[in-house]
Structures are given as structure tokens and as C-alpha cells.
Design a protein that fits this description.
A hairpin with a 2-residue loop joins strand 3 (140-142) and strand 4. Helix 4 (62-82) packs across helix 5 (103-119). The radius of gyration is 17 Å and the shape is globular. The longest helix is centred in the N-terminal third of the chain and has 21 residues, at 62-82. It is built from 7 helices and 5 strands; from the N terminus they run αααβαβαβββαα. The chain starts with a helix and ends in a 23-residue tail after the last helix. By secondary structure, it is an alpha+beta fold. It has a 5-stranded mixed sheet with strand order 1-2-5-4-3, with helices on both faces.
Length: 247
């Protein structure tokens, strides 16, 4: 099931040791005021209890992908009820695949998992979202909902905002960004705050792939998984498949 912050805080003993560890690391990261996490919506979402959490095992396994698909289906039905700063955060038990994997290896794990989840999606791709990842309107979708996907791993060291002791996935519904991407004074100010915090948190300049949704030179898939270095793969590993809806 999906868990809220308040539920976990009250029922911590129901979580396994690794689940407790993952959640506590995430909580500490979100509540750190000395080094504030750069994603303002994510930080506010945690503090206002609008995030939802899930746990799964080895991200290389089919079982983990099935559980993630189930989480996304559940989440799409409730996300708008949780608040303005909604996100789904999923922790994977990355201890089982070792702490010495490279950033590039985790990158393959991430895209393989996203592809498996996509193959389980029974709804058609939304008409207003491009099907080609190299189109600036493309975004990962599941059950008819577009999401910004985010991945953090134990291997990331340079980009601290992408480091986490466990393999972490986050999915933010596109509507969460409507205000941020708007031309309002608030939206423009929030963009500047996020970028400023990112530079301070990582202590390096933002990855060159980081842009804003809607820009013609922006490709969302390049932002889902950022390497420590300023490099990125040339072709998106996402495989869009035209699937027949199950009756």
C-alpha cells in the first residue's frame, strides 16, 4: 500500500529495518535546514504530508516493476486529493545489488525498470504528450497521467542532490509544475530559488541537461537520470510500445 508521512511516523514498527532506514534518511534530507534540499516542492510536500511512499525490492526484478506499476496506478487515483505538492517516492532495497555499482550501471537499471513498468500500462498514451522522447513535449506517462521521473542512487557522489543510500525513484505529476512553469512572478521566483539551492547543495553548476518543460531545446528524459559528470547518453533508452488495452 502507499503510505503517508503521518502513517509511517505512527507505525514505524511495521516497517522492516531497511525500510525504516530508507525513510529516516529521506526524512533527515528533507528536514535539513542547514543544507536545504533544492527541490522546494518536494521539501514542502514532505513537511505538509502530501507525499506518498512505497517500498519494493531489487529494482532489476520483475516483481519490483510490478509493484511500482501498482503504486503508480494507485497513486494516479489519489494524487490530486493529497495537495499541491504531490509526489510518489519509492525506495528500492538496493543493498541486494551492492553498493559498488557505477552511476552508469544504475542508469541502465533505472531505464530497464521504467521500460518494464511501461509495458504493464494498460491505458493508451495521452494524445497531448509526444510519443517520441526526443520531442520536447514527451514525458513519461502511466495510466494516462504524465509524470516527471527522478532517480537517486548510492553511486552518485558529485551531484549530492542525486545521492541516496538506497535506489530511490520519485514521480511528480505534471500538474504540480504548472505554477512553477508559469510566467507569474511567483513561478519565476521559484525557478530561481530552486536553481540557486541546487548549486549550493551540489557545490557545482547544474547539469547542462537541466531545463524547463516546454522549452523547445528541453528533453525531459535527460533530466530523469543525471550522471555525476556533465555527460548524457545520446539516445533515450525508453521504448514506447503500442499496446492493446486488455479487456
Amino acid at each position: 500500500m502507499l503510505c503517508s508521512k503521518s502513517w509511517i511516523d505512527q507505525h514505524m514498527e511495521k516497517l522492516t529495518p531497511w525500510q525504516q532506514s530508507a525513510y529516516r534518511h529521506f526524512s533527515a534530507m528533507m528536514l535539513d535546514e542547514e543544507h536545504p534540499y533544492p527541490c522546494v516542492p518536494g521539501k514542502q510536500g514532505f513537511q505538509s504530508d502530501t507525499l506518498r511512499f512505497g517500498f519494493t525490492g531489487d529494482p532489476r526484478s520483475g516483481e519490483a516493476s510490478e509493484k511500482l506499476a501498482s503504486y503508480l496506478k494507485q497513486y494516479g487515483e489519489i494524487s490530486r486529493e493529497t495537495g499541491n505538492y504531490a509526489s510518489l517516492v519509492v525506495f528500492c532495497h538496493s543493498d541486494v545489488i551492492g553498493e559498488n555499482l557505477s552511476v552508469e550501471t544504475y542508469e541502465q537499471v533505472f531505464w530497464n525498470m521504467l521500460n518494464r513498468v511501461h509495458q504493464m500500462d494498460e491505458k493508451p498514451w495521452p494524445d497531448h504528450i509526444g510519443k517520441d522522447p526526443h520531442d520536447h513535449t514527451w514525458e513519461f506517462c502511466f495510466d494516462g497521467e504524465p509524470y516527471f521521473a527522478f532517480c537517486a542512487t548510492p553511486a552518485h557522489n558529485v551531484r549530492k542532490s542525486r545521492h541516496f543510500p538506497y535506489f530511490l525513484l520519485a514521480f511528480q505529476p505534471r500538474w504540480v509544475f504548472d505554477e512553477i512553469n508559469s510566467s507569474t512572478a511567483f513561478g519565476q521566483k521559484l525557478k530561481k530559488v530552486i536553481r540557486k539551492r541546487l548549486v549550493e547543495y551540489d557545490d557545482i553548476e547544474p547539469h547542462p541537461s537541466l531545463k524547463w518543460y516546454g522549452q523547445e531545446d528541453n528533453y525531459e528524459w535527460k533530466q530523469y537520470y543525471l550522471r555525476d559528470e556533465d555527460t548524457s547518453i545520446s539516445k533515450c533508452p525508453f521504448s514506447h510500445m503500442h499496446k492493446k488495452i486488455k479487456s
